[in-house]
Amino acid sequence: MSDTDTVENIRYTADIVVVTPDGDVLLIERGWDPFEGAYALPGGHVDPGETSLQAAVRELAEETGVRVKPADLRQIGIFDRPDRDPRGRYVTVAYLAVVPVGTPVVAGDDARTARWWPLGALPRLAFDHAEILSAAMGAIGHRN
C-alpha cells in the first residue's frame, strides 16, 4: 500500500424485514439523525463477538420488542452500495422474518415508535430500506 492509498472505515450492520402473512411490515420511526423522524427497518450495528444473525435477533428485540429465534430468520442479501448511508460506508446483511398477524410491538432502544404498515401504503423509507424490502418481498414471491 502506498502513502496515497487510503483505508476505508466500514461499519457492519444487520437489518430485518419483518412481515405478517397478511402483508404488513414492521417499521420503526428513527429518533436520531440521519433521517430523524423517517421510518426504517429495524436493525443496527453488529457488536464485537456477534454474527450478523445474532445482531439481527438482538436489534429486533431491542427496537421493537419482537423476539424471534435465529432459525426464524432467512438471509435475503448483503447491501453494500458505497452511498447507502450519509454517515459513511455501511455494509448490512439483511434478514427476513415472517411473524403471526397481531404480533405486539413496543418501541424501545433508539426507536421513537414501532408499528405495522400495510405493504401497499408505506411511508418513505430511510437509507436504501425500500430496496431491501423489495428484495425481501421478491424472495417470498410477494407482489405489491
What does this structure look like?
By secondary structure, this protein is an alpha+beta fold. It has a single domain, classed as Nucleoside Triphosphate Pyrophosphohydrolase. It is 17% helix and 32% strand. It is built from two helices and seven strands; from the N terminus they run ββββαβββα. A four-stranded mixed β-sheet has the order 4-1-6-5, sandwiched between helices. Strand 2 (24-30) and strand 3 (39-40) form a beta hairpin. It is globular and about 55 Å long. The model has no long low-confidence stretch (mean pLDDT 94).
- The SSE order reads EEEEHEEEH
Number of helices: 2
Radius of gyration: 15 Å
Structural class: alpha+beta
Question: How much strand content do the residues show?
Answer: 25-35%
Which ranges are low-confidence, i.e. pLDDT below 50, for 5 or more consecutive residues?
none
Overall pLDDT, averaged? 94
The CATH homologous superfamily is called Nucleoside Triphosphate Pyrophosphohydrolase
Distance between the termini: 48 Å
Q: What is the highest CATH level, the class?
A: Alpha Beta
**What CATH architecture label applies?**
Alpha-Beta Complex
Query: In the CATH scheme, what's the topology name?
Result: Nucleoside Triphosphate Pyrophosphohydrolase
Main sheet, how many strands, which sense, barrel? 4 strands, mixed
Q: What is the strand tally?
A: 7
Supply the number of structural domains.
Answer: 1
Spatial shape: globular
- Record the strand order, biggest sheet: 4-1-6-5
Assign a percent range to the helix content.
10-25%
